[in-house]
Amino acid sequence: MKFKTFAAFVGPSVFMMILFIALPLVSVLIQSFQITQPVMERIEVETCTPGFLTQTCVTEIKTVPIIGDDGKTVTTTEWTGFESYRNVLQMDKFWAAISNGTPGEILQIDFWKALRFTLMFTLVTLPLVIGVGLLIALTVNNAVRAVRGPVIFISLLPFIITPVIGSLSIYWLFVGDGILTSMMERWSGQNISMFAQAWTVELLMYFYRVWHVAPFAFVIFYAGLQSVNMDTLESAVIDGASRFERLRHVVIPHLMPLIIFISLIHLMDCYRVFEEIVGFRAEAHVKSLQWLTYDFLRPDDAGNRAISRASASAMLTMIGIVFLLILPLRRTWRDHKGGSH
Amino acid sequence: MSATSKAMRQSLGLRLASGSFLVFWCILAAFPIFWITVMSFKSPVDAFADSPLDVIMGPVTRAGGNGLSIIDILLGGAVTFFALRWAFTRLPGLVARLSPPGLIVLGWLIGAAAYAVVFLTVFFGVLPLILGPLNAVLGPLGEPVLGLTTQHYVSVWRDNEFYRNFGNSMLVTAGVVTISLTVGTLAGYGLARSGSDLAFWLLILALIFRALPHSVLVAGYLPWFINSAEILRPIFGEISPTLYGQPWAVIAVLVSINQPFTIWMLRSFFQNIPSELDEAARVDGCSHFQAFRRVIMPVMWPGVITTGLFSFLLGYNDFLVTSLLLDAQNQTMVPAIAGYFNRETTTTDQVEAVAAAVSITAPLFLLVMVFQRQIVSGLTAGAVKG
User: Which residues of B touch A334 (CB under 8 A)?
Assistant: First the structure.
């Protein structure tokens, strides 16, 4: 294909990606180094209240934003360097916590708290998703042909459901005296509230993510299982391999590329964990990196958005994703070089 | 597998274990969705009752005069069953016969809409008219046994004007699907047929873009979108729009976010189509673009439908982008539900939020039912090609 034709086909897509993905990234980088604030001025205000005989007048100095000719507040944009990063990272508190010998205090800083949760979340759910997905795939593969259709249908539901709604549906089972909470209370004889402390909320979030993503892993493993070489399996039986050994030495190696694929997708998706926090209303206990940026971007009570701090936390989030992707990308590059056409 | 040799056959214990795990998984997968559906039809006291039996039977709802008798359940079930069967057997033939050639998609849209209208009229209009006198005559069979009320749905859709959010959701998803597919098929085809290093790097770049958290991107747009009227004034003059809060601006953003995924997926579908096909078309005198349009696209429909489904899911399920970039009037369904949290002071509000959530889930349920095969094949196509 000539370059011109190639460009005509790919052009629109690349144009959109540059306009709406690459340029915003540049803009985020610039914003993270500068800060836009309304220009304030100090003016003397005299307020008088009616009093007995004479008015009571108080003169005070107030700081108010300057209103421009067009009726909007005048703003200035200053170059502040790494100020926003310092605000987000709070390194002084970080080092203070370490030098005090109380590293636990680091987790009181929002960014480090979010980083801790995001990484934990990714690493804890990854093996569970792969394990559960594989287990479902193996059992469905074992099952009679007639039940496979309905089982796949039911399995797809948790995967396809809107993530916010999915987490809400689990939230409602446990909130207050939801039926599962009251069932656990009856069993244990204790008063349980699942959303009052961080660790139970976190546990529910892990559960939700596995529930939501395991079907995705299942469908892919199930497709992979259809192409396992039957001859190899049978010769393994003749060699006396037990069912478990066959699984370990024949089936799993066959599925390895798919396991890597799912791990990669899971890594990307878990790193931007967000909807669970909305659904479980967990922001008081648990924060994720993406939530942190979202929170900065939401207008506060005065209607201001902390754009520069959001940009700084967005840049830090992005650096994390680059670290996560280096290994898989190097592998892809080597494959491309090796199998070059 | 039935054709396995004797050595491969499983012991009874293993079969039992694997069967019971499967049952357990199915319950686990379906239970939360099933349960919120049940809750949404009950009065607040029943919906949040301690005992599961009370939630299902709904004694308080029944006492409030909203109950179904055995006859109601039987007749309603029969109507639903036949409606479903008819939808899968007769409707496709009818649509195929009546829609003009080349406009099958439009035919399906009209057919499905008409079908929905007829079903709703029969189910909620005709059925109660028949059942009212029937229940009065039949004595014990006509006594209400199961509490069920649709009042939360009525208040969500009519009083809280959820139909506006529904309309916005439809607008955004329709836009995302159409533009994603138009731009994506072109790019997917170009990438699949070009073996150059540039194509490889574009795909890698797309992979990196796919990994980016959406909040990173939104942090980039937000200031530009809010101030866009002033920035665009030199180009468009006085009519320059403020992009913040506009559904079509959100469509553009979601399409771009979706592009990396779309081109990867469509590329793998295009690679499954032998390139001899377009080479033959080229020999016959077609240009690249003509070959793409006349020869490749007609065999690509399954791939396009599958990718369209995933684009639909992205646009429909998105919370972060729509909640940050749309203002309150133009909100889509998913962020609108977050509005219920702030109001959630009484249990009635909570059950209304549940009903709204079920309303959002219902179309997805239908989607899986109709397109299960495409979804599975789409997931696997992505996996096999990595």
Answer: none
Termini Cα distance of chain B? 28
Residues 161-190 of B with CB under 8 A from A: 183-184, 186-187, 189-190
pLDDT of residue B2: 44
**Record: contact B208-A325, CB cut-off 8 A:** yes
Contact state of B259 with A13 under an 8 Å Cβ cutoff: yes
The topology (CATH level 3) of B162-386 is MetI-like fold (1.10.3720)
Q: A228-280 pLDDT, tens per residue? A: 777 877 888 788 777 788 778 888 888 888 888 888 888 888 888 888 888 78
Q: How confident is the model at residue A128 (pLDDT cuts 50, 70, 90)?
A: very high
User: Do you know the residue count of chain A?
Assistant: 341
Cα A234 versus chain centre, distance? 44
Give the count of beta carbons closer than 10 Å to the beta carbon of residue A112: 20
Lowest mean pLDDT among B37-51, B89-103, B212-226: B89-103
Give the span between the Cα atoms of A231 and B47, in whole angstroms: 55
State how beta strands A34-38 and A75-79 pair: antiparallel
Q: Residue ranges per domain, chain B?
A: 162-386
DSSP alpha helix (H) spans, A162-271: 163-174, 179-188, 198-225, 230-238, 243-246, 252-271
For chain A, say whether B338 makes contact (Cβ under 8 Å). Answer: yes
CA distances from B114 to A161, B81, B86, B124 (A): 26, 18, 14, 15
Angle at CA of residue A194, ends A191 and A198, nearest 5°: 125
pLDDT of A282 above 70: yes
Q: Are B257 and A21 in contact (CB under 8 A)?
A: yes
Residue-range domains of chain A with CATH: 103-340 (1.10.3720.10)
